[in-house]
Amino acid sequence: MKLRHTAITVAIACALGHSAWADEAAAKKWIDSEFQPSTLSKEKQLEEMKWFIDAAKKLQAKGVKEISTVSETLTTHEYESKTLAKAFEEITGIKVKHDIIQEGDVVEKLQTSMQSGKSIYDGWISDSDLIGTHYRYGKILSLSDYMDGTGKEWTNPGIDLKDFIGTSFTTAPDKKLYQLPDQQFANLYWFRADLFARQDLKDKFKAKYGYDLGVPLNWSAYEDIAAFFSEDVKTIDGKPIYGHMDYGKKDPSLGWRFTDAWLSMAGTADIGIPNGLPVDEWGIRVGADKCTPVGASVSRGGATNSPAAVYALTKYIDWMKKYAPKEATGMTFGEAGPVPAQGQIAQQIFWYTAFTADMVKPGLPVVNADGTPKWRMAPGPNGPYWKQGMQNGYQDVGSWTFFKDHDPDKVAAAWLYAQFVTSKTVSLKKSITGLTFIRDSDIRADYFTQNANKYGGLIEFYRSPARVAWTPTGTNVPDYPKLAQLWWKNVAVAVTGEKTPQAAMDNLAEEMDQVMGRLERAGMAHCAPKLNPKGDPNKYLSDKGAPWKKLANEKPKGETIAYDTLLNAWKAGKVR
Q1: How far, CA to CA in Å, does 356 sit from each of 246, 454, 459, 469, 507?
Q2: Per-residue confidence (pLDDT) for residue 497, from 0 to 100
Q3: What pLDDT is recorded for position 572?
Q4: Going from the N-terminus, what domains does the chain have, and what CATH number goes with each?
Q5: Please, are residues 188 and 378 in contact by the beta-carbon 8 Å criterion?
Q6: Comparing C-alpha atoms, which of 190, 238, 240, 454 is closest to residue 347?
Q7: d(CA 569, CA 573)
Q8: How many CB atoms sit inside 10 A of residue 509's CB?
Q9: Using CA atoms, how far apart are residues 457 and 466, in angstroms rounded to an integer?
Q10: Where are the beta strands (DSSP E) in 18-163?
């Protein structure tokens, strides 16, 4: 009798379509299974899902049955596409076609949509690196305005924007939020803690360099450690060991190596978080309004071809050729990424934490028998031009982005989906799956307290005040797609030796100025470039601000810190 009653109930529910009973049943099913653990109780999760159910019904009544979204290839986004999109459809009745494509293709399609004025997708997960572009062209929806206006009824009361750790990166000069963070990961220093702990290696290093083998605080120490492993240690367990890893193939991914804040790690920019002002980590200067780009070359007050920038490129080439495996110069980003997991790299100055999940797999040479990593991560060392209060490194922030003039009902539905995949109901499980944190509440969840030892310092880093100094490309960059593509071609000719680092950066700075000059003539909705006239570079080179004068000594004494000391500082709420 009970079975017959259930069958009749289900039949009625199917006949009525997505009734409240059916939707809540689906929500309960997902809450009991996939959406655990969560920072919310199951009761609070269901309450949040009921809001999504009710909002979706209003959109379905307007005829919205399906939406399309896109993101780059990343573990987090694959989880959204394969699992969370299905959950959203079962709970709300709105189908999501969530495409996963290469990052370059996302940018290209976004560019096409901006030029045509017609959005290919209803919602985009686009890097916050484009925040300056989005603000200036005026094609992207201001989420601040939307949530206060027509999008108010489609905005989850439990969204808790203050819990998101990356909203400062998606806020434009007008102080409005334009993008909602969906995933984040920093580039940090990576090292083999098991090798650094060996007494014989510690003794040899100290005897040669006069200080302790440890986490390098400056580029001098990083260089010493690189030389030590590559030239002195040479082999570990019968296999070659290298003190450095990088990539240098002439490929668009080579540009990421530099636009992802390599120059700022050397100290090219001005002091300022999230990005240097008036000169940022690309070397672009803005005017007194903190918004109008006035030049990239030193002759216009920029720093792209300044002594600090040339030093950064020089060290990149020297280290790769001297201390990395010889194959590194012919590798792309994707090819070089898995190499440290193979066990023959002692340290890497520039390592994306998005690789964490792939570096803790059982059986890898860099993983202990108990599943804990032999490696650790730490803040990257600083170059000699770097000063306290500067950006310390890069953090990728893939963020939900919507076109202003797109079908408002489709935007509303895509906004629901964006809030769903970033909601407290699902975000902790998503964080465990992809390790790309967006909410402070997830980082501080009991699950990560109990499992912190599995992640090599990632949890401690994200719980520390140090994390704020790892930031994406900032608002000084007026057109990310147009300017970003200039980097890899110019860096490549320095890698091959066709040009000196100085000549390569001179050409890059000149090309950036040319592009910004065209943008100035074409006009933009907000803060179009207005180039300074060319002048004597010495007029701008200074020891007070960027572009910084050339230092007499670009290799001060190496400094290191014991990893446990660093970890304890983080736990105590200090940077280091």
Answers
A1: 17, 10, 11, 20, 36
A2: 96
A3: 75
A4: 22-126+143-177+409-466 (3.40.190.10)
A5: yes
A6: 190
A7: 6
A8: 27
A9: 12
A10: 66-72, 95-101, 123-127
Of residues 447, 416, 355, the one with CA closest to residue 84: 416
Given a contact cutoff of 8 angstroms between Cβ atoms, the answer to whether 524 and 482 are in contact is no
Beta bridge partners of 553: none
Rounded to 5°, the CA angle 241-247-252 comes to 165
**Alpha-helical regions (H) of 228-379:** 252-259, 262-266, 307-323, 333-336
Per-position b or e across 144-162, b if 16+ CB within 10 A of its CB? bebbeeebeebbbeebeee
Nearest alpha-carbon partner for 432 in 46, 132, 83 = 83
Nearest to 361 by CA among 328, 381, 338: 338
pTM above 0.90, yes or no: yes
**Which CA distances in Å does 522 have to 287, 515, 517, 533, 551?**
19, 11, 9, 18, 39
Greatest Cα pair distance, the chain, in angstroms, is: 91
3-class SS of residue 140: strand
- Tokens in use for 336? 């070089």
DSSP type of residue 532? P
pLDDT above 60 (res 471): yes
Using CA atoms, how far residue 87 sits from 27, 60, 157, in Å, is 8, 17, 20
Q: Is the Cβ–Cβ distance between 401 and 123 less than 8 Å? A: yes
CA distances in angstroms from 17 to 9, 46, 58, listed in the order given: 12, 20, 14
Q: Which pLDDT belongs to residue 566?
A: 87
Q: What is the pLDDT of residue 12?
A: 36
Please report which helix (H) or strand (E) contains residue 189, including its range: strand 180-192
13's tokens:
């529910």
Digit-coded pLDDT (tens) for 201-254: 999 999 999 999 999 999 999 999 999 999 999 999 999 999 999 999 999 999
Beta strands in 224-308 (DSSP E): 235-236, 239-240, 285-286, 293-295
One-letter amino acid at 454 equals K
Q: Identify the residue with better confidence: 3 or 315.
A: 315
Q: Tell which residue, 295, 312, 282, 313, has the closest CA to residue 540.
A: 295
Distance CA 309, CA 307 (A): 6
